[in-house]
């Protein structure tokens, strides 16, 4: 029997008030083990699609199923939100604590970890991303690339079952991008990655879905 979809969007429609449809009867699935590249021109609606998956925007019609839960209300999404990790397009939307360690520990603490466990998880996550020694750095003094990695650390520290990564390579130099590529390839979680960096996607993605004119088209028939 095939594995159940981690994400299943069926016939979803969405438009911002009074503007053209961003999604027009679009369909999408994510299965265990997949790393799906989500591509499309600027303004196609890729970030909006992530916000729909997190329940930050509600569809006008169609069904949203996340981790085997049909999600309609805010309550439905609240129940699964901790299991889905969203890397925001803008790191400054993700980082709001004075120091790096506080930012990374915030998620585990919020999910009920003890102080000691949250600290241990945070140190390990930072080390895995090559960020040893960053613990006491002032978050808003970090470079753009450093903020990108710390933002990713805040997501990974929550040990989500699905990753939604919005432009993860923004601001990274070649060496750090290569390290990030290896890290993403080694993670067990299924993920969707929005990026305009085609060389990076070629290394990481197992298939590509392109978003255009309200539709989501996979390069692999499902
Ligand atoms: N709050 C809003 N109100 C009205 N329109 C919006 C709002 N947010 C986004 N849009 C519009 O919806 C469309 C989709 O935006 P979105 O950010 O999802 O696109 P995207 O594919 O992620 O773009 P990019 O590749 O440039 O990041 C764009 O035309 C954008 O201007």
Give the neighbour order of strands across the main sheet.
6-7-8-3-9-10
Average of the residue pLDDT scores: 95
Indicate the structural class: alpha/beta
Whole-number radius of gyration? 17 Å
N to C succession of SSEs: EEEHEEHEHHHEHEHEE
* Outline: globular
Number of helices: 7
Provide the list of bound ligands, each named once: adenosine-5'-triphosphate
Total count of strands: 10
Poorly predicted tracts of residues = none
The biggest beta sheet is recorded as:
6 strands, mixed
- Report the portion of residues in β strands: 25-35%
Report how far apart the termini are.
15 Å
Helicity level: 25-40%
GO molecular function: ATP binding
Domain ABC transporter: 7-220
Family: Belongs to the ABC transporter superfamily.
Organism: Thalassospira marina
Can you characterise this structure?
Keywords: ATP-binding, Nucleotide-binding, Transport. This is Energy-coupling factor ABC transporter ATP-binding protein. Pfam families: ABC_tran. The chain has 222 residues and is an alpha/beta fold. 34% of the residues lie in helices and 25% in strands. The protein has 7 helices and 10 strands. The protein has helices at 46-54, 74-81, 100-110, 115-128, 144-156, 174-186, 198-204; strands at 7-15, 21-30, 35-39, 61-66, 69-70, 84-87, 162-166, 190-194, 207-212, 215-218. The strands form 2 sheets. A 6-stranded mixed β-sheet has the order 6-7-8-3-9-10, with helices on both faces. Strands 2-1-4-5 form a 4-stranded antiparallel β-sheet, covered by helices on one side. A hairpin with a 5-residue loop joins strand 1 and strand 2 (21-30). Helix 3 (100-110) packs across helix 4 and helix 3 (100-110) packs parallel to helix 5 (144-156). The longest helix has 14 residues, at 115-128. The protein is globular. The two termini are 15 Å apart. The protein binds adenosine-5'-triphosphate (ATP). Adenosine-5'-triphosphate binds at residues 16, 19, 22, 40, 42-48.
């Amino acid at each position: 029997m095939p594995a159940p979809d981690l994400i299943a969007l069926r016939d979803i429609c969405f438009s911002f008030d009074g503007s053209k449809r961003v999604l027009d009867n679009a369909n999408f699935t994510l299965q265990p083990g997949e790393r799906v590249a989500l591509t499309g021109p600027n303004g196609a609606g890729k970030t909006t699609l992530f916000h729909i998956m997190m329940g930050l925007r509600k569809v006008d019609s169609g069904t949203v199923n996340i981790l085997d839960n049909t999600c309609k209300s805010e309550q439905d999404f609240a129940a699964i939100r901790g299991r889905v990790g969203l890397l925001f397009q803008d790191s400054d939307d993700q980082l709001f604590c004075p120091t790096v360690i506080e930012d990374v520990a915030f998620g585990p603490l919020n999910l009920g970890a003890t102080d000691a466990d949250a600290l241990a998880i945070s140190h390990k996550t930072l080390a895995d991303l090559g960020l040893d020694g960053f613990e006491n750095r002032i978050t808003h003094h970090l470079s753009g690339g450093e903020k990108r990695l710390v933002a990713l650390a805040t997501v990974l520290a929550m040990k989500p079952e699905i990753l939604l990564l919005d432009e993860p390579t923004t601001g990274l130099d070649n060496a750090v991008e290569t390290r990030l590529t290896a890290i993403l390839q080694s993670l067990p979680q299924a993920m969707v990655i929005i990026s305009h960096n085609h060389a990076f996607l070629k290394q990481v993605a197992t298939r590509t879905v392109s978003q255009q004119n309200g539709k989501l088209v996979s390069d692999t028939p499902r």
